[in-house]
Amino acid sequence: MPFCGLASTWAKVSAFLSIVALALQSAGSATNYWMSRYTFRDKLHFVVGLWKVTNCSGNYKAPCTVSEVPASYQNDKVTAVRALECVALALMFLCAVCLILYVGSRTCRRLAVACLAMTMLFLAAIMGIAGMAVWVNQIPELHYPGWSFGLTVVAITFNIAAGVLLIPDLAEYDYKTVLQHEGHYDNLAQEEGQAMSDGGGAQPSDYRDDVRPIIETQGPKGAPVFQYLNYDKRKKRDGF
């Protein structure tokens, strides 16, 4: 069986990118390097995160101390950034869960799940971009964005890419390539080289004009058994 079931390659790559984006967003939100101020002359090295600050000022070997964000850095814009980034992180988590289920479980491989995942991916990107824009706008003079901020930029980029990669999967969801079987949806491109008549998934050869299904019964009370036999249009055999 193909890796991760019968989901498309687009969906698999999208799920992978959403997981990477979630990890990067989590790391960026949790670390303290959203902006920094560094001066060699004054021996000042001060970095600020969403929740904590790290102060490494002083001598070269001076210890770093972690503390709460000072009141001078607390404002409504910082509060808004925290809220937006938390919402983006929550949406990314839900997206990753949806895509893992969509790729790994045939019962969840439905159009509604794919649409929901793509919608949340783009909503998370919008929230993240809004948070980054507000953060850049409130950075004080002589301060610069840090690498934690950069992690969230990469995370949002991957998140957008994951949403875009789902578009071909939705566009091809006309289900000429999908078979409803036993209440589940399976891709017809199952087990390569094994036709439906051999117990495998449907192959293009199973839909040739010279193949027709017939019904044979097993015993007077037997249930119908579907078989695929070659049907010659020019030579009708057995009255069929």
UniProtKB/TrEMBL annotation:
<feature type="transmembrane region" description="Helical">
    <location>
        <begin position="80"/>
        <end position="104"/>
    </location>
</feature>
<feature type="transmembrane region" description="Helical">
    <location>
        <begin position="111"/>
        <end position="135"/>
    </location>
</feature>
<feature type="signal peptide">
    <location>
        <begin position="1"/>
        <end position="15"/>
    </location>
</feature>
<protein>
    <submittedName>
        <fullName>Uncharacterized protein</fullName>
    </submittedName>
</protein>
<keyword id="KW-0472">Membrane</keyword>
<feature type="transmembrane region" description="Helical">
    <location>
        <begin position="147"/>
        <end position="167"/>
    </location>
</feature>
<keyword id="KW-0812">Transmembrane</keyword>
<keyword id="KW-0732">Signal</keyword>
<keyword id="KW-1133">Transmembrane helix</keyword>
<feature type="region of interest" description="Disordered">
    <location>
        <begin position="194"/>
        <end position="222"/>
    </location>
</feature>
<dbReference type="GO" id="GO:0005886">
    <property type="term" value="C:plasma membrane"/>
</dbReference>
<dbReference type="InterPro" id="IPR050579">
    <property type="entry name" value="PMP-22/EMP/MP20-like"/>
</dbReference>
